[in-house]
Structures are given as C-alpha cells and as structure tokens.
Amino acid sequence: MRTFGILYAELLQTYDKSAGNTAFLGSLLLFVNSIAGPISGLLSMHFSFKWCTIIGGLVSCLGMVTSCMTNNIGMLYLTYSCLLGVGFGLSYPPTLSIINFYFDKRRAFANGILTASFGLSSLIYPTLYRKLIDHYGIHGAMLILGGLLLNICVGGSFFRQPRSFMRPSVPINSPESKKLLSHTNEGSKNKSKLTFAIDKILDMFRTYSVALRNTSFLLYCFAMSFALVGYSSIFMILPPHIESQQFTKDDAVVVLTVIGATEFVIRFFSGIIIDKQWLSVQTMFILTMFTGGICAIAVTFFRSMPINIIYAVTVGIFPGILHSLRPLLVVSSLGLKILPIAYPLSTLFSNTACLIGQPGLGWLEDYTGNWNVSFYTIGGLFFASSLCVLIERMLVKETQNEEIVIKTDDDVVEVTKTNQNNMENKDRDDVKTSLVIKCP
C-alpha cells in the first residue's frame, strides 16, 4: 500500500484514466482493508492470531496474482482493491496488535521496531517495483509481487496466541475442572454453533458501543483519520508531482526511498522518547503532525530535486511516525485488553476517510492541472489531526471507568474495566481483568 505511488504513476500511463478514478484503486483498497479489520480482530481474539494472519497472506497473494491477468481497470477494483484489501485487513491488525501483549515497560519501543519495518519496506520496495516494472511490465511485476506476499504466511506462522485470550487451565481432577466440564457438556447440547457465533459477534458490538462512547477514543479516531488521509496520500501524489517537475521516474523512486530510510531510523528513537516519558504520545502526535502540515505546504513553493529530498526527510521524521503512535493512542484511551478489536475500529474510521480523501486529491489535480492544491489540502489535514488531539487534552479532565464484558468461550467471562481518559502515558496495562467461571 505504501508504494502505491509507483503503481499509480504507471497505471495513469497504462490505462489513460483520470487521476481521480485511478486513485480510487488505492482508496478502495484501504476502505476494504478497514472493513475486514474488525472481523480480523474478532477472529484473532477468539480463535488465532496466527491463522488469521496466514489466511490474510493467502488472500493477498490471490488478489495480486489475479490483478496481473486483467487489462481492465474496472476489474482491478475487484482484484486489486477488494481481494488485496481483504487480505491486508486480515493480516495487518493481528501483526500490529500481538506485539503489545508481550511488552509492558518497553511497549512504545517495541512498536517502534515493528513499524520501522514499514520504513524498511519503503526503503526497498520502490526500487524493487521500479526494476520489476521496467523489466517485466506492470503485469509481470504484479505476478512476482503476489509471490512475495506469501511471506506474510511465513511470518504469521511464528505467532503464538497471547495468554490473555487462552482458556485458563485447571488441574484435570480438580472440582473446578469437573464443574467446567459438566457445564461445557451441558452447554454444547443446548447451544448450536450458529448461536455461539452470534454471541461472539454481539460481544464485539458491545465492545464497539463502549469504545464509541469514549470521548478520547472518538477524538483520536478523527485525529488518526485526518492524519492517515494526508500521510498515505503523500505516497500516492509525490511520484507524479516529481515527474510533473520534469524529473525522471528514478528520481521519484529515490525520494520514496529517502522517506523509508528516514522512517526506519526515526521510529526507533520515537519509542525510546515515549518509554522514557520525555514526551507523552499525545504531545508527540500534536508536534509531529503540525510540523508535517507546515512542510507539506512549504514544498509547493520550490521546484528542485534537493528540496524534494529534504521534504522526503521531513515526511519520514514527522508524519512518518504515525503508525508507531496509533496503537499507543488506542491503548491510552481504552486499555490493552480490547486493542485487537478497538484498533481495527479506529482503522475503519481512518480508511473510510481515505475512500473519499485520496480520489479527492486526484480530482483536485484534474481540475487545477497541478498538485499544489493537493499538498495544501494535505497540510490542512495534518493541522486538523493535531487540533483533535489538542482538544482532547484540553476538554477531557476526569477519568471514568466503564465495564466491558467479553466472552472468551462458553464458560469464561472476562470483565474488563477500561480507563475512559488516561491523562498520562504510563508504561503499564491500563486494563484490570477478572475471570469469572460460570457454573451450572
């Protein structure tokens, strides 16, 4: 998704469609990704992080491989945007959520290392995309990339289910196990698999209802939506913007590579800064997004390759740490326990905004004949995201606890208390959980 700008510039030439309609491929992919995300969270919590990721890798491969077989951009909406979106939606949330359950004191640093891999992909994939397209054409490149996506399955195979979502073990001959077994046998007779699935879905929506009543979480969702539309759009419009300045396609690849290299380095340091509590997650978000907005507007006043390189560095430093901060913002507002469901819900907000935002920037170029207004819009989106978090810091003063009941299986109910508004970013799990075994 982060190297869509390379494909975008190539698709504009291959299919000769408008900038807005072609950009809709990327925004639809993000939207489908967000729709699959909550389902992924539910499957991960109640079944397996590992298998959810593996299935997502297989669907992603299928989407990319079938995309290489069509010459119709309308069909790409189905194969590239929908199939690839479902695959990424199933594999991405478990990958980003699972690490938070294995780190407590250094959670921000662990997220920094994980999201630094995104920067590494931006460092490698633009050049790889360019070489593959030059040697094999866009369709041959998609076929090879489909094979590479199978590595998602390899990575997912190493996942181990967090203990928080595993059935508590009791001695086989203990009174508790006999009661549990008796209740399980009785419940299995009275409850069908369909009823079981419905209960799980209802639990998910109960969790959503609690999250959506959380003021901090809602403001963070708006902030992340504005920021993600701006940030992801940079990768889409920067390559054609550079080519419109009479620079080469290789120059566009260099700029994207610089962004990736900068992100790879800066995300390590962002985690250290947060873990040391030199800055809170919220303060870092406000400062980086606001600065990213200034840089997005300033770059339009220059037409030189060195300035484009400098701008690439600022993208990697400021809005580039967005993905490191997103799960931490969710944890700070709702706690760790429901992160696998709450994070995809926040992604649904932000990617739905991308469904309109990214084509809108393309249509602005169609209307104005250049990308300057699109960059002004990106700057405004970054300012709006900073403002949302600033409002949350100013308006939310009191801490409120709300109880969420999550059923992990037929026999165990997890009672979770979420912190309505965490004013400080602490290196701790903000969720207190008690397990209640229901007996007949």
From TrEMBL:
Q: Which residues form the Major facilitator superfamily (MFS) profile domain?
A: 1-397
Keywords per UniProt: Membrane, Transmembrane, Transmembrane helix
Per its UniProt record, what CDD domains does this chain match? MFS_MCT_SLC16 (cd17352)
Which SUPFAM superfamilies does UniProt cross-reference here? Answer: MFS general substrate transporter
Q: Where are the transmembrane segments?
A: 23-44, 51-69, 75-96, 108-125, 137-159, 217-240, 252-273, 285-303, 309-329, 373-391
| Major subcellular site | membrane
Q: Which InterPro entries does UniProt cross-reference here? A: MFS (IPR011701), MFS_dom (IPR020846), MFS_trans_sf (IPR036259), Proton-linked_MCT (IPR050327)
Record-given protein name: SLC16A12
Q: Which first-to-last residue range defines the signal peptide?
A: none
Q: How does it sit in the membrane?
A: Multi-pass membrane protein
Where, subcellularly, is it found? Membrane
Indicate yes or no for the key word Endoplasmic reticulum: no
Q: Which GO terms describe its cellular component?
A: membrane
> What GO molecular function annotations does the UniProt record carry, in alphabetical order?
monocarboxylic acid transmembrane transporter activity
Species the sequence originates in: Mytilus edulis
Species lineage: Eukaryota, Metazoa, Spiralia, Lophotrochozoa, Mollusca
